[in-house]
Amino acid sequence: MSEYQIVYNHSNSNKGYKSDDKFNSIILPILNKLAKEKNIFWISGDIGVSWSLPLFYDKNNKTGICYIANGIGDTEKDVLIKINIQDGEVKFSLFSLGIENKYKLEHYNLQYWNMYFKDNQVSSENKYIYTILSKIQRMLMHKYYWVGFISFLPIILLFLFIKKRLSS
User: Fold this and answer.
1) Same structural domain for residues 96 and 137?
2) Which residues are within 8 A (CB) of 10 and not within 5 positions of it... i.e. 6 or more apart?
3) pTM for the whole thing?
């Protein structure tokens, strides 16, 4: 089992991905060779879902390769990663799309993921139910849902009133 299995298991979807992919046999040796001379950042997306974490960061001490993943899961925890390269130095900062994020990108490392999912186990059957319920909850809590509902309610009541008057 890969040390990054925890991220794979809790990403948006792993359907269509084979566990015997060519990353370890073809791409990783090339990255390892490049990492001896250059800073290597492997950045991906689509890990965001309502029951998971929006970020992942790991700088592998053996290879020097920095792995980063981000995903928008339509949650209060969603963030964007801003990458700033100046004078050959790479810096990452986070831009929150929901509640303010008080952590740096480096906080979302393997240790954090393992601790988070040790305490917050979500079974595969419950992932989809949790996603649907959290979307319904966010919809009902959103002010524009209620603006639309209250705006449309008089139209519905007027329609029902006219229908009742015509049928009598």
Assistant:
1) no
2) 47, 49, 51, 52, 53, 113, 117, 122
3) 0.69
Tens digits of per-residue pLDDT, 33-63? 999 999 999 998 888 776 678 889 999 999 9
Sheet with 55-59, side-by-side order of all strands:
41-44, 66-70, 55-59
Both 106 and 37 in one domain: the answer is yes
CA dihedral 41, 43, 47, 48 (to 10 degrees): 100
Q: Are residues 24 and 80 in the same domain?
A: yes
Domain extent at residue 144: 124-168
Task: Tell me which residue of 99, 49, 86 sits closest to 70, measured CA to CA.
Answer: 49
Give the three-state DSSP class for 99.
Answer: coil
pLDDT of residue 127 exceeding 50, the answer is yes
